Structures are given as structure tokens and as C-alpha cells.
Amino acid sequence: MEQIELIVRSEDEGTRLDVFINRNIDRLSRSHIQKMIEDGLIKVNGQNSKTSLKVKRDHLVEVNIPEPKKLEVDAQDISIEILYEDNHVAVVNKPKGMVVHPACGNYSGTLVNAILYKCGHLSSINGVIRPGIVHRIDKDTSGVLVIAKNDNAHTKLSQQLKDHTMTRRYIALAYGNIKNQKGIIDAPIGRHKNERKKMAVVKEGKSAVTHFEVIESLNGYTLIKASLKTGRTHQIRVHMAYIGHPLVGDEVYGPKRPKIKAKGQMLHAEVLGFIHPDTGEYMEFRTPIPQDFKDLLDKLRL
User: Fold this and answer.
1) How do residues 175-186 score in pLDDT, each as one tens digit?
2) Domain ranges of the chain
3) How deeply is 219 buried, as exposed, middle or buried, from its count of CB atoms within 10 A (0-12, 13-18, 19+)?
4) What are phi and psi of 47, to 5 degrees?
5) C-alpha angle 180/183/187, rounded to 5°?
6) pTM higher than 0.85, yes or no?
7) pLDDT tens column, 46-67
8) Which residues contact 277 (CB under 8 A, 6 or more apart)?
9) What dotted CATH number matches 68-163?
10) Residue 278 annotated among the catalytic residues of the structure
11) Catalytic residue among 138, 140, 151, 250
């Protein structure tokens, strides 16, 4: 257990506890700090506290950072395309049909299993089951992802996601002819009121903004590119269904009797750009749509 003691200075007085710690220990993300406060690992003047506490001058803040847990997910020799790798990050092209990280009842064959084998070590911020995972894409969504190989990289990449400075562009095939060449969908997303495994546009949901642009009209279907300002669960799928243009192959948000039978939604994370957590250099990666997506487009163009 690593212990760090911080004394509140006059210029920090009135700052929230989690913000104060984040300013002084930047390798810890605010979400990580908040979990540590809940677990009683952070004390103010020897007492457990709340995240919302406003610190005062001369407060003694004691931060107890536990040793990283030994990863219990098995490394597996699974073929995975690594687009870039150094000591801090790995950028991969996740294939369609692969789950990003293990979950209850599914502890093998995931991207995490594959990356552990290829890279050997990942950040510990997301714990044993999701090491290195900064952001996710759905099982049947293909495309580019960045993986953090240490906690410092993870913290800085997560902050870019939070600040909406990470570039994320997708290619998707939607039902119907979208009339407007460009559009912005600004509609809050939360859990579906009746079906808890689904997301939906709900008044009390979290802010969600998707920008889209038509690439090509294809006989009753529209190929679009979409970029995310926010990153809510199933965001593009939910937003496109909300405006009446669900994604082809989407068994959750698409029509019950689809005209085209596809294995999973036609959605591909084509571009990912971020500031490298160590060098400060902006890096951008692009991956082509998978073969099944390409074949379907060729068929619609006939």
C-alpha cells in the first residue's frame, strides 16, 4: 500500500476533495479517486469523508493507494491486428464479433485476453476484468480502439474522453433515405424504462450528441459517417433509431422483421485520434470497413 499525505494550501481552499487530489496526484483519475473515497482509502484529518467535501486550509488528506491486483484473466494467443504499440499504448483493430473484455460467464476469447498475450501488461485502473480498457465498442461493432499499458496513460486518455478531445468517427449503414446531408442529434440517453438491457432517449438521461453526414444513398438505405461528442452506451445505434433510421443488422434497436439479414449492426469505428499520453503528439489511426460490410454495400449498389 502506497501512502501519500497532502496538506491543503490556501489557494486550494473550497475545492472538492476529489478535484484537489486529482490536481496533486494526476495519475489517479477522478472516477478512480471517487471509488477510493467510497472504499475508505482516503481520509481527511484521519476521518473518512465524502467526495463532495470542500477542503479547508491545513486539512491533512491521506491517500492510500493499494497495490494493483494480480490479473486473473488468462492471456490467450488469439489473432488480433495491432496498428501501433509502444510502452504506453497499443492501438488495435477489433474484429466484429469479439467482446472487448470478460464478463460474467464469458472469461475467454475477448480482446483483453488477446491483448494480455500480445502486450504482457496493461493498466490496472479498471481492475482485474477490464485492464487497459479506456473505451469500448460493442461486440458486433468493428474498428479501432486504444489500450492503455500503464496507469498514467490510462488516466490521461480517460481525461481526453471526458473532455471530448478524442477523435472518434464511425461508418454506418442505416435504413431509409436520409434527406438532410448533415445533421446533429442532441438527445439524452439512459436506460430504457421497460427493458433494462436496452438504452433509449429519455428525458432524465445523460447528455448525448452525435454528428452525422451522408456519404451515399443506396436504394432505400443510407451510408453515413458519424462522430461522437459524447460516448454513451449504444449511442449511435440509439440515436439513429430515434430519428427513424436504425442501423442495418441491429437486432436490438432495428426492425423486428428486417429486410436484410446481417450478423450484427453495420457499424465500424473507422477513425480514432488522441494526444499521446507521454509525448504529447497527436496521433490518428484509420481502419477499413470489414469484408462483410463491404460485400453488403457492393450488393446494394447493383
Assistant:
1) 999 999 999 999
2) 2-65, 68-163, 168-269+294-300
3) exposed
4) -115, 145
5) 130
6) no
7) 999 998 899 999 999 999 988 7
8) 88, 89, 148, 152, 153, 155, 156, 157
9) 3.30.2350.10
10) no
11) 138
